[in-house]
Amino acid sequence: MLILPEAAYNQMVAHCLVGLPDEACGLLAGDPATGAVATCYPTRNLAGSAKLYTVDPKDHLRADRDAEARGHAILGVFHSHTHTEAYPSPTDVAQAPDPGWHYVLVSLRDAAPVVRSYRIVDGTVAEEPVSLRPQ
Amino acid sequence: MPVTVHLPTVLRPHAGGARSVTVEGTTVGEALAALTAEYPGLSGQVIDADGSLHKFVNVYLNDDDVRYLSGLDTPVAASDEVSILPAVAGGAVDVGAPAAG
Fold it and tell me: pLDDT of A57-90, one tens digit each?
């Protein structure tokens, strides 16, 4: 399960909307043992594309260091799908960097954003519940 | 000279769970080769068989991506820190041509 504070949820969705027409991306940090997110780190999409994303490596390093300084760790990544559903694409699955991570998709296809979270282990995708927590 | 290499969570199991490892080297490439020599489970995960940097990792010398320095030939000094992070990328399926109508 991914436990998402409302502030992180709002920051994530806002970053995806601001990124239109391109895909937007960012990292989530918190406690990997429980899946509880503490911080959302919006990052630049180096691919600058409506179909692809690449987390800016410098933004990733900065987020990683900030998370460690807070006693947290990067536990997942989010990105938007601008015209497709909130499900990992074959590219997302093939390039999933860490089996311990949570993979959050924000679909902007419909009027209201749809947020879903997945685990991706050895090419197998499994959806997990997202628990939104008020601050 | 001793260089500290920070490992991402995904590679730590291949290095006995260590978050960082101190190795000897005068360049980033030498430090990473020493790391792989110490932990053979990391071979092919950071440096490819042809000796180039693996496509799906980013390696930093202090704050800078080594791809924008001199790559694996980038010299390191005694107090330098090398960090390895996974490259994080993906994207939607091919959106294709707009639907007719």
Answer: 999 999 999 999 999 999 999 999 999 999 999 9
pLDDT digits (tens, 9 = 90+) for B37-76: 999 999 889 999 898 999 899 999 999 999 999 999 999 9
Cβ <8 Å between B92 and A23? yes
Amino acid at A63: A
Do A1 and A129 contact (CB within 8 A), yes or no? yes
Cβ contacts of residue A108 below 8 Å, gap of 6+?
Answer: A16, A17, A20, A80, A81, A82, A83
Phi first, then psi: what are they for B18, rounded to 5°? Answer: -70, 140
In Å, how far is B10's CA from the nearest CA of chain A?
6
In a mutational test of the B interface, the residue from A55, A56, A80, A82 whose CB has the highest number of chain B CBs within 10 Å is A55
Contact B90 A89 (CB under 8 A): yes
- Rounded to two decimals, the pTM is 0.92
Task: Count CA atoms within 13 Å of residue A133 on its CB side.
Answer: 11
Top residue of A60, A83, A108, A125 to mutate, by most chain B CBs within 10 Å, is A60
B28-65: burial string, b at 16+ Cβ within 10 Å, e else: bbbbbbbbbebbeebeebbbeeeeebbeebbbbbeeeb
